Amino acid sequence: MTEGLPGFARFEQFAVEVNGITVTGRVSRADAAGTGGGSSKPALLLLHGHPETHVMWHKVADALAEHFTVVAPDLRGYGGSSKPAGEPDHSTYSKREMAKDAVAVMEHFGAVRGFDRFALCAHDRGARVGHRMLADFPERVTRAMFLDIAPTLDMYAATDRAFAEAYFHWFFLIQPAPLPEDLIEANPRAYVENIMGSRYAGLEPFPAPVLEAYVAALSSPGAVHAMCEDYRASATIDLEHDRADREAGLTPEVPLRVLWGAHGVIESQFEPLALWGKAVPGATGRAVDAGHYLPEEAPAEVLDEILAFFV
Length: 311
Prior knowledge:
The chain is an alpha/beta fold. The protein has helices at about 60-65, 95-115, 125-135, 150-155, 160-165, 170, 180-185, 190-195, 210-220, 225-235, 235-245, 265-270, 270-280, 295, 300-310, and strands at about 10-20, 20-30, 45, 70-75, 120-125, 140-145, 255-260, 285-290. The protein has one domain (about 10-310): Alpha/Beta hydrolase fold, catalytic domain (Rossmann fold). It has 15 helices and 8 strands. It has an 8-stranded mixed β-sheet with strand order 1-2-4-3-5-6-7-8, sandwiched between helices. α2 (about 95-115) packs across α3 and α8 (about 190-195) crosses α9. The two termini are about 30 Å apart. It comes from Arthrobacter sunyaminii.
């Protein structure tokens, strides 16, 4: 777990056992908005991206806690959450299993705070988990917002040289173990700082304690393997699940808002709103004046969007 980080004054840390693993993170205190009870506020699940942890929400978390019961977990394999060894078919890190984790976490807090359903805001890898959640658990999610992704199946299908160069890590991390594990474990800091620092805004949006938290998380035993398995799953079993949904004509009827960085790869390489409109009919969205890490690069704009869409 992380201590002394900015932006979580209204939160307490948690570690809960769900789906055969331990999930860690932060949840807003029941009295975070001074209302005397979390059950009076709707629930909001925040899911983070790569190579980060739930800490990525630090610039918007306290403001969100004024309006919501906020639950911000670390995905399995990330942060303080369990990092089980991957199976040969990579199913341990399928987005289906990761979605089950997140839903179980919300069931845990819902039993205490008095909510049955929840809103979802998710970035990057977390949004891929969120997409699977809409397919497998549409009855649990009231509304969803995805930040800076296009559907995984469409991104792989449209891969060309420009995308492969911009998102080289997609193809590096899926190489058979232990090559990527060995190389990254030799210098986790270099991986974090180069992956994040090479994007539009560089490292400026990440305060030193936050960046150190990301480096420390990736330096923990099993973290690099888990990260690689997350990506290996996305290139294999997750595509099987996505193709099966499309062949069955599954289109979740959950209101969806998508935001992406005007200076990022999603903007330059894809047509995100058109792609999401096919996957989730009625999806709306727009570009934000940022690169990939929207909540850390453009927190005020993201906060405004969240409040406008969910409140």
